[in-house]
Amino acid sequence: MKKVSVLLGLLAGLLTGCMPRTVISPTYDFSQMQRIGVMAFSSQWQTLQGVENLFAKYLLQNGFKVVERAQLESVLAEHHIAVSGYLSPQTTREIGRILGVDVLLVGEVSAYTPARTELTLTASRQTQARPVYTQEVMRRPDGSYAGYLRNVGTEVSRSAEVRPTQYTIDGQVGLIAKMIDVETAEIVWIGSAEDSSKNTLEAAENIARKLVKSFKKELTKRSQNP
After folding, report:
1. Which of 19, 34, 95, 187 would disulfide-bridge 13, Cβ 3.0–4.6 Å?
2. Which domain holds residue 133?
């Protein structure tokens, strides 16, 4: 039963996109990786421009030496090197030589659905019951008459109240990140993940944290089992 629960938990994680999916090169020597250059991530959505800064943040927190995007782009502009789309081996070598980085982190926003608010109508039904009386007259022993109320049943009434209910559907974000060796332009690590939140920038940050944590874990595992 315990094994079944674990499997169901893993399956649920995959279906909801919470678990990062990563692949690391089995032959690349990561011990030579001293500095990482973080490039601008491509995104067709203005809201998620600059998500590469989140990766720079968590790489630094995990002990990596990072050359962040603004510094990198400034130096490249001084040397008249344009970087967009495909990075040729010649371009990556030139970047590595100028900036003294060993690998480049590049990526893209692969999916984005903003959070949205929806309105639904909720009906609540109510039932009320009240006793029904009729006026009666009775004769007293002394011959006089007196009126009184006699219960003759129950009256049931039903009503429905319709109320608007507002709720928020979480936004979703998908990111893909790759590490490229500057000498060979070989992809040495790639990871992807999706997350959802009412705040899509928060979802992007969760992804960056998980992917960097996964990368660090893979490096630690490799160093312990060379």
Report:
1. 19
2. 125-167
In a shared domain, residues 209 and 97: yes
Reported pTM: 0.70
Strand order in the sheet with 103-113: 21-24, 187-197, 171-181, 103-113, 35-38, 65-67
Share of the chain above pLDDT 90, in %: 37
Q: Are 44 and 138 part of one and the same domain?
A: no
Q: Which tens digits make up the pLDDT trace of 92-112?
A: 888 888 888 999 999 999 999
Q: Looking at residue 50, what DSSP letter applies?
A: T
Q: Distance between CA 211 and CA 219 in Å, rounded? A: 12
Same domain, 175 and 219: yes
Q: What is the pLDDT of residues 74-92, one digit of tens each?
A: 777 777 676 655 667 887 8
107 and 141 in a common domain? no
| Closest of 189, 192, 53, 180 to residue 104, by C-alpha | 180
> Which is it for strands 65-67 and 35-38: parallel, antiparallel or unpaired?
parallel
One DSSP character per residue, 113-149 reads: E--EEEEEEEEEEEEEEEEEEEEEEEE-TTS-EEEEE
